[in-house]
Design brief:
single chain; 277 residues; alpha/beta; Rossmann fold; eight-stranded mixed beta sheet; 8 strands
Length: 277
């Protein structure tokens, strides 16, 4: 084997071809996408990961920007996915510039699910049901941090998928004034036997007519997901409010695992469409 290798090298030299040398190590530089902050939280009892992506040119200007708050927004979660869509829209000029704030989850059923009385769910997820506390964290600590540190326009959107989508719907129903628009992708409305969807009408009765928007979408995910979505949309039709705009887009070609990218892209194009000339 060694003799054959030497013969190949000699042959290359005779032909005037230099044998390939091992390349010197090439220095690597980090790719920086946004900034990550360890935000002290008295509500949550410790520091929490908050990730922020700013539009290109933010540092050189004085403009203010809308803010998209992304649940499950950790660096190992959906922050890079959604901030990538924002960057793409900026680069190709298809959507307005927006600040993306990723709020990382630690214990998703604790932070994103409302309390349940189902003994099976309680036994399986003993820490579940603290969505109200997580909502206070967003309202009292995350939003003031973002608004105090960055040039925001006052226009806000909350986006989430799956259990985070459940949290989005719950926040829209219970604290609608917190955000201007809500995007719930494949919301886990099955939680607690679909109780949130059934109670939607009672919450909607208390809504003001302040302008706000709700975007709902669901893939081909079976009756456990579809049935409570049907209940929710029926309640939205029954308790129509002049200030509330909502739409539901079925995505039968998508599953729970594949729906988020296309749905988030469509939400960007709808919520952050460039003004027409």
């Amino acid at each position: 084997m060694i003799g054959r290798t030497l013969a190949i090298i000699v042959g290359l030299c005779v032909l005037g071809v230099s044998p390939v040398r091992a390349q010197e190590p090439v220095a690597a530089t980090p790719i920086v996408i946004g900034q990550s902050y360890a935000l002290p939280s008295s509500v949550m009892g410790g520091t929490r990961e908050i990730n922020v992506w700013l539009p290109p040119g933010y540092a050189e200007g004085t403009a203010t920007y809308p803010v998209l708050y992304v649940l499950d927004g950790g660096q190992a979660q959906d922050f890079h996915h959604i901030s990538g869509l924002a960057q793409l829209g900026t680069i190709v000029g298809t959507t307005r510039d927006v600040i993306v704030v990723g709020v990382a989850s630690v214990d998703r059923r604790n932070e994103l699910a409302l309390p349940t009385e189902d003994p099976e769910l309680i036994a399986r997820y003993p820490t579940q049901g603290q969505s109200e506390r997580f909502r206070r964290f967003l309202l009292e600590e995350v939003q003031p941090f973002v608004e105090g540190r960055f040039r925001t326009s006052g226009e806000t959107v909350l986006m989430g998928e799956s259990l985070a989508g459940l949290f989005v719907v719950e926040t829209f129903l219970k604290e609608p004034q917190m955000f201007d628009a809500y995007v719930a992708v494949s919301p886990s409305l099955w939680w607690d036997g679909g109780r949130l969807a059934r109670q939607a009408g009672a919450h909607l009765r208390d809504h003001s007519n302040d302008p706000r928007r709700l975007i709902l979408t669901l893939g081909d995910e079976g009756p456990e997901m579809q049935a409570p979505m049907d209940v929710l949309t029926q309640n939205l039709r029954d308790f129509a409010m002049p200030g509330v705009t909502w739409d539901f887009t079925p995505r039968p070609a998508e599953s729970h695992a594949t729906i988020y990218h296309g749905a988030a892209l469509d939400a960007f194009r709808s919520l952050y469409a460039l003004p027409s000339n």
